[in-house]
Amino acid sequence: MRLKVFEAEQDVHRPQRNQSSADLKKILEDPFKNVDSNMIKTELRARIYKLIKHSIQEKMEAYEVRKVTVRALKYVCDMCGDTVSEKFSLIEPSQQFIGNHREIKFLRILTRLPLLGRVFYRIFFDKIYFNYEFIVTLLECSEHINTELSHMSHSLDYKKEIGELREEISANVYDFVQAKESLSNQFPGLVRFIKTKRASYHLLEYQLKQIDTFEK
Questions:
Q1: Distance in angstroms (rounded) separating the CA atoms of residues 168 and 93
Q2: What's the pTM?
């Protein structure tokens, strides 16, 4: 049963490729004239960060990500938008939100206190949930953008720049996968619970949308 719920989570989260491809193509279709390779990559990064921010907003509107997490995600995208001349990197500015494992371990110790333990456990759980949701959202967005870039790169004139940008995004994807695995290894029980909770909630949202569609 749990496996089916996890599979359902993947189905619910699977991007609508045709729509996303059209959005990405629209953003990238403006021609670059009389500019060098570095300027092209700078402009591409700026557009990709904006598209990721837009994808995050769509996930929030679809109730896939909580508002508290979205605020942090958008802040990271805005920070990256100020450094488009540098390599594509969502992981570095994200460290201020997900990199403080010492704080998490300290909260875990506080959960053992008498009387106040339950209060600190709630804070501890919310922190783990936030970290997992934050990491998974940026991981999904980065993977999706990279896949779509691969699909449409053959139809663009600046294939070399697209290829180099995809390498930068792939490095970020690897870092987010590592961060996700690290969180899962440190707190396996909580992460399994969070996965099940998210999958159940998203499955319920999907069913409600289907009912609404059938009703119309």
A1: 15
A2: 0.76
Sequence-distant (6+) residues with CB within 8 A of 195 are 6, 9
- Give yes or no for a contact between 139 and 180, defined as CB atoms under 8 angstroms apart: yes
Query: Which residue has 């059209």 as its token pair?
Result: 22
Q: Which two tokens stand for residue 208?
A: 């409600």
Distance CA 154, CA 16 (A): 21
How far apart CA 66 and CA 144 sit, in angstroms, is 20
Q: How far does the chain reach from its first CA to its final CA, in angstroms?
A: 31
Residues 6+ apart with CB under 8 A from 65: 56, 59, 73, 133, 137
What's the average pLDDT block by block, 10 residues per block, for the chain (216 residues)? 41 49 62 70 90 91 88 94 90 86 77 81 89 94 89 75 91 93 89 85 74 79
Q: Which amino acid is at 172?
A: N
Q: Output the CA torsion sign for 178, 86, 100, 122.
A: negative
How many beta carbons lie within 10 A of that of residue 122, not counting itself? Answer: 12
Interatomic CA distance for residues 99 and 183, integer angstroms: 10
Question: Who's near 31: CB < 8 A, 6+ residues apart?
Answer: 157
Asked whether the beta carbons of 111 and 121 are under 8 A apart, the reply is: yes
Residues 6+ apart with CB under 8 A from 20: 55, 144, 148
Burial class from Cβ neighbours inside 10 Å (0-12, 13-18, 19+) for residue 67 reads exposed
Q: How many residues does the chain have?
A: 216
Decide: 12 and 205 in contact? Cβ < 8 Å.
yes
